[in-house]
Amino acid sequence: MSVAFKNELESMSIESTDIDPNEEVTVPWGFAIISISIALAILIAYRMYMNTYAFTVGLDYFDPEFQVYWMRLMWAQLIIIGGAGAVLVPWLWFTREKGEYELEPKVELKRYYTMFALLSLVSVVAFAALAMFGEADAAWHQVTIRDTDFTPTHIGLFYFAFPLMWLGLGLGFIWVHTRLPDFQNRISVPLALLAAGPFLIGPNVGFNEWGHAFFYAEELFGSPVHYGFFVLGFGFFALGGFLVQCYKRISLLTRLEGDDVESEAA
Fold it and tell me: What's the confidence (pLDDT) of residue 211?
């Protein structure tokens, strides 16, 4: 083991007591499976609602029934997601580690594993949401041809799936930079790019709704009003860079004990 790695191990304090030193650190598979199952159940229920009402009461934004079945849903989900952000963002910030802090290696490793469990949840939900609502949006427009100010598929995609991405990635960005010592006093550029992807397409959501409603009736994937959505896809590529940063630190945390044993034996 390199001298730098040994010095880093010796510099780590053992002040944290939120994990038993004799406890084996494992990936929280139970949490990941349960949370993913709940999220998928919500998405499937939402998709079933769309299948039931998107064509019966969802074809005309100016229809009173549209206001009941879709606009109420849109405002409810925006209020819930916005309220969750208003509570969780300050909570994460004000309960952060204060000043320079260090963690016992097992505690830090457990936090990385918890983060990976959350990333698995985000990955599955993002894929399922984009597949369900993105595909549904294209199919809905191929039948109805024209966009209106709001559509059932846009309410599911732009005002439910995307805000969830904004909230999840925003919370993750704060948590990583306030709970993991390797990211204190610095910004992870790959994670910043990943978190910025959904935020940067926000203006394009408004441009898309306005453009389709007033001057671009056809729903073509290559239309100019869709160009801004590519930012989201490119943002996802930054996940690889962030994982490299995490694996580098995890490699250190998981090799220290074994390397010490080997050096003593030699």
Answer: 73
For the chain, which ranges sit under pLDDT 50?
1-19, 260-266
20: left (phi over 0), alpha (psi -120 to 50) or beta: beta
Contact status, residue 235 vs residue 196, Cβ threshold 8 Å = yes
**In terms of DSSP H, where are the helices of the chain?**
3-11, 29-53, 64-66, 72-94, 105-129, 135-144, 152-156, 162-179, 189-200, 202-214, 230-265
Q: What is the predicted pLDDT for the residue at 80?
A: 95
Contacts of 177 (CB under 8 A, 6+ apart): 183, 184, 187, 188
Widest Cα–Cα separation across the chain:
80
> DSSP class of residue 161?
I
Report helix angle 105-129 to 230-265, nearest 10: 150
Distance, CA of 100 to CA of 187 (rounded, Å):
15
Give the C-alpha distances (Å, rounded to integers) separating 245 from 8, 89, 149, 186, 248. 17, 24, 43, 12, 5
Q: Show Cβ contacts of residue 55 under 8 Å, excluding neighbours closer than 6 positions.
A: 140, 143
The CA distance from 136 to 160, in Å, is 14
